[in-house]
Amino acid sequence: MDWTLPTPPAHLFIECLPLAGILDYYAQSNFAGKVIIILLIFTSLVAWTVMIGKYMDLSKLRNANNAIEERLGATERILRIDPKLGKAKGPYAGVAREALGAYHRAKGGTYAVGHVENALQRAVARESMRYETKMILLGSIVTGAPFMGLLGTVWGVMDAFGAITGQASANIGALAPGVSGALLTTVAGLVVAIPSVFGYNFLLTQVKMMITELENFASNVADRIELEAKGGDPS
Questions:
Q1: What are the residue ranges spanned by the domains of the chain?
Q2: How far is CA 203 from CA 1, 161, 213, in A?
Q3: What is d(CA 233, CA 31) in angstroms, rounded to the nearest whole number?
Q4: At what angle do helices 172-229 and 135-163 cross, to 10 degrees?
Q5: In Å, what is the CA distance from 86 to each residue of 1, 89, 93, 144?
Q6: Model confidence over 135-151: pLDDT tens digits?
Q7: I need a labelling partner for 144 at 20 to 30 A (CA). Which of 23, 69, 70, 217 fits?
Q8: Helix, strand, coil tally for the chain in percent (to 5)
Q9: If 0-12 CB within 10 Å is exposed, 13-18 middle and 19+ buried, where does residue 142 land?
């Protein structure tokens, strides 16, 4: 007796693959639905590129900030540091550079501390905008992707009902393919939006934390400059 199990037909494997079903639904979509799905695929690529790139940018900025913070923390008197700070980069470097430059431009006069505080406010505002770069684009994708998918679904359902209007006997079998293709755009919109909203919330939290840290750093720099300018203990 032959105990060899029969090999299932190849088409059964293909039918079991989710991709095959998705391609069928895509083929059943109307022209507008296909265009919207292509746009959503492109939008998804943009969203992932922005999220990964933004995370890497924030990591680099944090490392640069830590280097400046350690450098200033190891310095007994901050006013003795070169205002240009060499090749130092990052938001903290920009803030410290503006503060020291403002103090030296005022030549330690009576209003030097006021000039430093104004320079710090401008620097913090500028660097905060640097932190928030690309967040508007990512937020727009999070908000717009589900609506793009909904637009494709409504349009596809409208076309599906319109296609059976002139038929003598309408049935669910004639309506189902068009509706299935139309619903694919909603699924695509959610597939784009759901990872994006998690990434956006994570990155937004990191940005807010780093902006708060930047404001604290600027306040610390202002305090040290004021103490040293008045001849106080810089530590």
A1: 31-71+80-161+169-229
A2: 64, 43, 15
A3: 73
A4: 170
A5: 85, 9, 10, 44
A6: 999 999 999 999 998 88
A7: 23
A8: 80, 0, 20
A9: buried
Contact 40, 187 (CB under 8 A): no
Burial class of residue 111 in the structure, from the number of CB atoms within 10 Å of its CB (0-12 exposed, 13-18 middle, 19+ buried): exposed
How is residue 200 written in tokens? Answer: 């956006």
- Tell me, what DSSP letter sits at residue 80? G
Q: Tell me the two tokens of residue 176.
A: 């189902």
CB 52 within 8 A of CB 73: no
Q: What is the pTM of this model?
A: 0.78
pLDDT per residue over 189-225, tens digit each? 999 999 999 999 999 999 999 999 999 999 998 888 8
